TrEMBL record:
This is S-adenosyl methyltransferase. Coiled coil: none annotated. SUPFAM superfamilies: S-adenosyl-L-methionine-dependent methyltransferases. GO terms for biological process: methylation.
Length: 265
């Protein structure tokens, strides 16, 4: 097929950022991505619902942070910066996106071409020491380190050690008053179903293991960041959705729950 941006890069393998775009209802994806996404949805049918809430939370959190005066955003594991990402919600803010995936980075630079307020870095978000001093950050943020950080829909990519490391490094780098919006995809400790096990095995096979934590583990892993006055809340609450929006079936037999939080230094 022809790609809306005309760049048939890496179309023989599914790509995480494009799979995510497809699940969000976007058009920046190929047949191979759609097949992978549909397979994931066949294993965990509630995927689409959760993923849409994740993106909606990103928008809500960015709006709240703009209202609080934040105009610099550093976003980890950004995926494709399509029209509902940070720079679209906060058009006057300076935004640095980061992703490890070269395909996502190449597409993103095309999508963002000509936008002077936005940079897209290729880096490993698990190794903040490799990008926190990047010239692009200084160029866009100057010396200002009171910033808003995005950690949205990325927590399952981290082992506990990696999560502690990234939280501490970001905390040390950011100025007091900085905030971080984050989501956490949780399940009950010890609960598993055959379909969920297959879902997790699929990520493992792609070389990108996926971890679900409990809420208590997440609360511990974000330290030394502290939740602001709103605390850890299920995404349905953040988004003002009816409490029965997520059904028992959507919890997939493992008590799936996705939380959002705005952390502060
Ligand atoms: C589920 S998407 C989240 C996209 C976006 N943050 C959002 O909320 O819509 C996860 C993204 O993290 C990226 N990713 C995974 N591991 C990464 C790593 N070690 N460093 C940087 N990006 C990574 C993937 O390539 C993918 O684009």
């Amino acid at each position: 097929m022809s790609h809306p941006m005309g760049s048939p890069v890496g179309t023989d393998q599914p790509n995480a950022a494009r799979v995510y775009d497809y699940v969000l209802g976007g058009t920046h994806n190929f047949e191979v991505d759609r097949q992978a996404a549909e397979f994931m949805i066949s294993l965990v049918p509630s995927t689409r619902k959760w993923v849409r809430m994740l993106r909606a939370f990103l928008q809500e959190a960015v709006r709240l942070l703009v209202e609080e005066g934040f105009d610099r955003f550093l976003d980890l594991g950004s995926g494709l910066p399509t029209q509902d990402h940070i720079h679209a919600v906060a058009p006057h803010a300076r935004v640095i996106y980061i992703d490890i995936d070269p395909v996502a980075v190449a597409y993103s630079r095309e999508l963002l071409a000509g936008n002077p307020n936005v940079r897209y870095l290729q880096a490993d978000m698990k190794r903040p020491e490799t990008f926190l001093n990047a010239p692009e950050i200084r160029e866009l943020f100057g010396d200002e380190r009171r910033v808003a950080i995005g950690f949205n829909a990325v927590s399952p990519f981290f082992t506990p050690e990696e999560m502690r490391h990234v939280m501490q490094a970001l905390y040390d780098w950011a100025a007091p008053g900085s905030k971080m919006f984050a989501t956490f995809e949780t399940k009950a400790a010890g609960k598993m179903t055959p379909r969920m096990a297959q879902f997790l095995a699929m990520f493992e096979q792609m070389g990108q293991p996926f971890y679900f934590y409990t809420l208590e583990e997440c609360q511990e892993l974000v330290r030394p960041w502290r939740p602001d006055h709103r605390g850890f809340r299920p995404l349905v609450e953040w988004l003002g959705l009816p409490p029965d929006y997520i059904t028992e079936e959507d919890r997939e037999g493992v008590d799936l729950e996705f939380y959002g939080v705005i952390l502060e230094k």
